[in-house]
């Protein structure tokens, strides 16, 4: 079963078919396709993995595309246009232009409104869920960064203490060596 490769996206086909919320899954353009690089870059940014590459079966779900990236066949099936490139819907540090509120007011052309409305409702639901999840993760991230800073400081302090103790140990050892030598010398003198 395909699932969406994007981080924080919980869409996978078993769940989505069950709720039939119109989410579709889309494989990457084939090697040599002009848009392939943009898809890869998008996922690399999303996952913060510069070396990430898709497999033959890697999918991105329809939530990460614009409504105009799809077209409907006469039988009502929804397909992704060849020119489509996924995009980041949540407001993030590197994409401030698309605020979550602007996305909740997406314009739908009349001819497609019958098909799009339930999908949009689901997309909005998904979007709100994602925004809440992201907020939560950002909070956790902040907390972890704080903890990380604190632990680094603590680590530095402990390293310093260890260094100090090591140098003391060297001193103590050399003093002990000296004393041992003196005792030995003294015992030699006594024997004589
Ligand atoms: Zn997805």
Automatic annotation (TrEMBL):
Pfam families: THAP
Coiled coil: 155-182
Domain THAP-type: 1-89
Record GO terms (molecular function): DNA binding; zinc ion binding
Keywords attached to this entry: Coiled coil, DNA-binding, Metal-binding, Zinc, Zinc-finger
Record's protein name: (apollo) hypothetical protein
Originating species: Parnassius apollo
